[in-house]
Amino acid sequence: MEVRVILVEPKNEENIGAVARVTKNFGFSALYLVNPPNIGKKAFSVASHASDVLSACKIVNSVEEAIADSAIVAGTTSKPGISVNRHLRMPFFSPQELKKKVEDKRGILSLLFGREDVGLLNEELMRCDIVVCIPTNLGYPVMNLSHAVAVVLYELRDVRADSGELPLACLEDKERLFAHISMFLDEIEYKDYKKEKTALMLRRILGRAELTAREVQTLRGILTKAERKMGEDEP
Amino acid sequence: MEVRVILVEPKNEENIGAVARVTKNFGFSALYLVNPPNIGKKAFSVASHASDVLSACKIVNSVEEAIADSAIVAGTTSKPGISVNRHLRMPFFSPQELKKKVEDKRGILSLLFGREDVGLLNEELMRCDIVVCIPTNLGYPVMNLSHAVAVVLYELRDVRADSGELPLACLEDKERLFAHISMFLDEIEYKDYKKEKTALMLRRILGRAELTAREVQTLRGILTKAERKMGEDEP
Q1: Any idea which fold A171-233 has?
Q2: CA A30 – CA A6 distance, rounded (Å)
Q3: ipTM, 2 decimals?
Q4: Distant-in-sequence, close-in-space partners of B35: CB < 8 Å, separation ≥ 6
Q5: Per-residue confidence band for A89, with pLDDT thresholds at 50, 70 and 90
Q6: Residue A83: its pLDDT value, please?
Q7: Residue B96 contacts A, CB cutoff 8 Å
Q8: Across the interface, which of A24, A140, A157 has its CB nearest the CB of B50?
Q9: pLDDT tens-digit profile of B216-235?
Q10: From the list A21, A24, A142, which residue is nearest B139 (CB)?
Q11: Which fold has domain B2-167?
Q12: Selected residues 16-75 of chain A with any CB under 8 Å from a CB in chain B
């Protein structure tokens, strides 16, 4: 896969420089910044010999823009889920498990890293196919931003753009499927208070499943058929 | 094993703070600094909630002092060896291989990380039992100091002080053995131009073998017996 490092609203330009450096250290180059601060001398000084990666970074205004053409979106968090009943951070993967999941796939793997203080927001985590949590010590689980990037890229170092076999569905296709599922839940009069939770659970399941474009099409076909059938039954 | 992080002559106090933080992130606490700069507000700011690790760090004047009571000394380098004929950086281990070597052992594992600009000096690498090299990209292999620490500690995160079974020989015992070997090479009139290289090769072999105290004693016993025998044969 093609690995893309996305920093969501980083505050500290030194961290951005440090991330550029470690991105190059592990042989990657695609760096996206969502609403970053001004990138000045300090960032370039910390980036050291990775000024090329830093200069070529893409600055965007939203997470949506950064992940638009991704095959898999993985969000990182220092707080793993604790209950299987809450799907936001569950199940979560270690960086090693992420590697195993993606190494035979093809497409863009977007890695989302959140703000230095509050990480990724819940709505950002909801957009992710996979949640990644670095196994740290409970006494102090919150890593420095660039350290978290370092550990994840270290595990992914052998994942290369041309290594995978299986072409995955693009994000747009999947989002259409998820919207379809959400509509379907309305149509079957799924209880409102459970709807959001179940939709998120389905997103997690299908995210982990790494659907191909064909599979997405088939799933939508099933939904459409069911909808037609329901229409027929209406009085 | 008990993991000890040793920074050799770090120049940048932010790096020291970042190392303190990631040391705590992975559940470790022993931090030694050889001739560090003044540790001030900046270091504590970067250390964040690991100010306890930073406050408790030991400042020493030499690598010898830092590694004195170690069972295994592992030195890190961004330049792996390229020729098996040069023993200084060869064979080298990945952080993962280091973990496998130490996980069932007992004693102090000293991890040496060198200066930001020139790393560890050759004479410091010579003192190491094991050379560790993080697999990075040839295009830019030199990692930021705290990133290198992050990756090695990430791999070692499950290695705990009380986990190992096998008590290893302490450094003093091993140094006595190495001195004995060196003396022995003189006694057998080993050619001067090859002596240093062979001594380093033996150090690497015996370092990787992770000798127990008893094995060190036995090896020295063999040398002593051979010396006596040679003495008898003298005219």
Answers
A1: Helicase, Ruva Protein; domain 3 (1.10.8)
A2: 8
A3: 0.78
A4: B8, B9, B61
A5: low
A6: 52
A7: no
A8: A140
A9: 888 888 888 888 888 776 65
A10: A24
A11: Alpha/beta knot (3.40.1280)
A12: 18, 21-22, 24-27, 46, 48-50
